[in-house]
Predict the 3D structure of the following.
Amino acid sequence: MTELHKLRRPWPGEDRYTAAQAVHWLAPRELLAAGVRAAISKTFGDYADRRETLALLTPHADPARSDMTTGFRAGASSQPDADFMIFDETSADTGFRTLEGTSSATDTDFWFDYVADLGDGFDATYAVAECLARDGLAIEGEVLPRGRILIMGGDEVYPTPSDEAYRNRTVGPYETALQYLCASPTLEECQKEEGQLTLYAIPGNHDWYDGLSSFIKQFCTEQWIGAWRTRQYRTYFSIKLPHRWWLWGIDTAFETRIDRPQMAYFLEARNLLEPGDGVIICTAKPTWLDCAAVGEEADDREYHNLRHFITRTLKGTGAHARVLVAGDKHVYARYEESEAAGPVPNGGQKIVAGGGGAYLSATTDLPERLRIRETRRADPTDYTLATVFPSAADSRRLHWTSLWRLPQTWSLVATLGVFYLLIAYLLRIAADEGSATGLVDVIDRVGGDGFGRVVTEVLGEAFTFVPFYVLILLLLVAATTFANKGHKGGRSAGIAFGVVHTAGHMIAALFTTMVAFWAGGHAGPWGFRAVVFFLVAFVLGAVLSTLVFTLYLIFAAAFGRNLNELFIGIRWKGYKNFLRFRIDEGGDLHVYALGLQKVRRRRLSWDADGHPEVSGQAATATLIDSIVVPRTPNGTSPG
């Protein structure tokens, strides 16, 4: 293996990037933008699907420099299709050949890496990139070499794709980390030396938010990221690996839909499969998580499209989908067939590995058992949760950290404070009784005779003021909708959660109003009372409303609701993960799940020569799971 060495490649000022903070997902601006993005992206998905355009613009294979092998159309096995690109990673050199000249599999182990859900905050994204960039990782007495190819499994940037976002959140951190690839003194020499290092990516929903425009520029136009080179021309790909393994990366867009050109591509790719081949399928969303057992049946509606794709493309080939990998949920979770279940053609391992840098997701809501119909007419196969990272207990302990982490989203706190201030002012109007009395006069009347008088006045006016009931109703509707967000079962129970949430806010808002009136009535100088009223209503309202909101999230999470909203508020940097694969000479696939329990703060700076410098303690990866997957379901991998 090559020696670690920092490449001395200066960055021009215009190419330098900034270390982005982790996204404040609960910030009102971000919540509003998310709604707009969802609406726009749905329009793109329905009316401007870039995948079909890419299929038309795909360049012809060039045997002189091409990184792909040509395939054959179904029914025309003797004629190669120049537009049909299968990426061949079995060659030991950097040359690529047509199918007839493809080199045989190498005689040594083949390594490759997988990461998904990256490009959020700098600290976590860079920590994972740093581990991927190292020449090898010493894990429990064994050295795991860096993979020759790197697969990015979706959501390569957050929250919105753009050239600037990819540069600051993904490309910059990865290129900085991936400078540690070879002993050459310059990046250009390193790229020549390590030219076989390649990168493939499939888009996730966040990559789709601009209709794939930025994703295509970054990953479908042969770009360099450090010494890794992107080679794909579409948002999906088929890669031939050594020892009769294949890796298929599919693009399911928003609705887990496989577009027609993509299906045609893989129907052609299936003609290269032989009986006994193993297939690894990478998809952006783990729809199998929706197949949790319900009684004796399995709710597999979300899994339907993926099952249809696998069944249709592999039927009659004798090849088997042995491993399914996806991100989207930012944890590590592996499901394997229950021991009682016999081998099925499309069974094997189903892995969620979305720990590339985005905020941590909860693991307490992961089902312990899945029932999956691998073919439409087959009996359901039981899968059990074999390994999860972090554990449910560790995930549950993080709930209480929201008490001090969620208030760090200052714009949310300020917005809630303004909301309570408006309630206080609404009750001031109620206390005004329709007269033209000024605010200070109302404060004096309500708050001048002690706190007991304030309570009587505020409550008395509130519950006889019709707009106050309208406000309660609107808040109840919003709270109920929020309680049911992302929850597929027991929607009627959302009303109960909405009532609890609404009641908490109304009690806190009434108390805030009482204190504001009382403080204003005892504020001393006449002109100072209105200022005190507004200040107390806003500051106390911000504190109490944030506390109520946070306690509600903790309460709801205990019943499996609003877990995602709780964790996007926590924005926990730790518990990241990525995968390292090895295909041995016997054809067995070794999967190493590597985790980073802690991610420490790192600082990015630029020296006088324009070289990036990252301070702080280097990231440390540990082994969280390890399995061996035979190439065929019967437990053997024949040559």
Notes: The chain is about 35% helix and 20% strand.
